[in-house]
Amino acid sequence: MSLDSRENSVGTVSAEKILIDKPLTLACGSVLPSHELMVETYGTLNADKSNAILICHALSGSHHAAGYYEGDDKPGWWDNHIGPGKPMDTNRFFIVSLNNIGSCFGSTGPTSINPETGKVWGSDFPALRARDWVESQKLLMEHLGIECWAAVIGGSLGGMQAMRWALEYPDKLANSIVIASSMKLTAQNIAFNEIARRAIKSDPDFYDGHYLQNNTLPKHGLALARMIGHVTYLSDELMGQKFGRELRSGTFSQGEAAPIEFQIESYLNYQGDKFSSGFDANSYILITKMLDYFDLSREYQNSAVDAFTNAKCKFLVVSFSSDWRFSPQRSREITDALIGAGKNVSYAEIESDLGHDAFLLPNARYEKVLGNYLSGIADQLEGAAQ
Fold first, then answer.
1. Which residues contact 362 (CB under 8 A, 6 or more apart)?
2. How far is CA 368 from CA 59, 147, 346, 360, 374, in A?
3. pLDDT tens digit string along 161-179?
């Protein structure tokens, strides 16, 4: 049973906006002279600063990974797994969770002011790669005075960052935990992302990405993009169990002409509308393109084994049986490449009917796998400190 009650939470939390007052050169060649990051931390950093874990969020994630804000009953997006006695045990680890650049929860991104123009960046914000997020995270690491992460953990796009850390800074992390991820997107995945972007750009309120200057938001297009994406995060089995062909309104009775709406239609419309009120369309376009561009082996003659050659950390790779967006086959490819490169890797495929979203949700075996792995790290750190 998942420890997801408020009693097992990190409790009330607050975020800090941290100014990284150093230039960040992006993969596209653009330079951010400085940038701001929204950050939350949970737990206590030990004396030698060796128990720090970095949480890497995915497409729509934020810095608010655990706990509750004052007056808000909604917990952070990974609250099931972060807290006292949970897999990411805040009694033993110091957890760092940030909102990456290009996102829209307070860190520098398309809704920020471009210092060169004095106007909102909008669609002029520079193109990003996963390595840019890692470089920004490295600057945050230096700001916090941390020399080596005990682990870098992420699901989906977060897992891509965890792998990139192992390649770019092999001496700066002891463990890379890659959950429901891939070394590159399939053509089908890229196709879904492009359809979602087209939906946003087709909204008349998009204004080529400068909608804020026109005092409007492309809510219809962003809602449609989210509906497309959300379908791919769920399994067919889950949708069948949860919704089936149940009706929200109307009837199939003869002689009845009232409009008919299925439960799944109502659910997707609700999810789309909710998302479009809380996320930024330019950020969605920017980050889905980042996903498309990611290819871990591109710079290594397309050899995944060669890509991992210089990695020094241990790896845990986790997949979910019903995830068809980032299928278990993709995780097995990561695992096979790590074995080929002679690296220390553990792999677990978790039975779940929850699709890609399973990495965010309670699951007893998932929590046991993650918890046991991290407990071993904590045991080692605490043993070394004695």
1. 1, 2, 4, 80
2. 26, 28, 14, 14, 10
3. 999 999 999 999 999 999 9
Query: pLDDT tens across 11-26, in order?
Result: 999 999 999 999 999 9
CATH 3.40.50.1820 holds for 6-184+297-385: yes
* CA dist., res. 273 & res. 98, Å (int): 25
Which residues are registered as beta bridge partners of 319?
349
Q: Are 133 and 161 in contact (CB under 8 A)?
A: yes
- Write down the pTM of the prediction: 0.94
Q: Which CATH class is domain 185-293?
A: mainly alpha
Q: What are 151-163's pLDDT values in tens digits? A: 999 999 999 999 9
**Spatial CA neighbour of 159 closest among 38, 335, 3:** 335
Positive or negative, the Cα torsion across 295, 300, 301, 304?
negative
**Cα–Cα distance for residue pair 96/81, rounded to 1 Å:** 14
pLDDT in tens, 367-386: 999 999 999 999 999 988 77
Residues of the chain with CATH 3.40.50.1820: 6-184+297-385
The alpha carbon of residue 164 and the mean position of all alpha carbons in its chain are separated, in whole angstroms, by 14
| Catalytic (active-site) positions | 156, 323, 356
Name the segment(s) of the chain with CATH classification 1.10.1740.110: 185-293
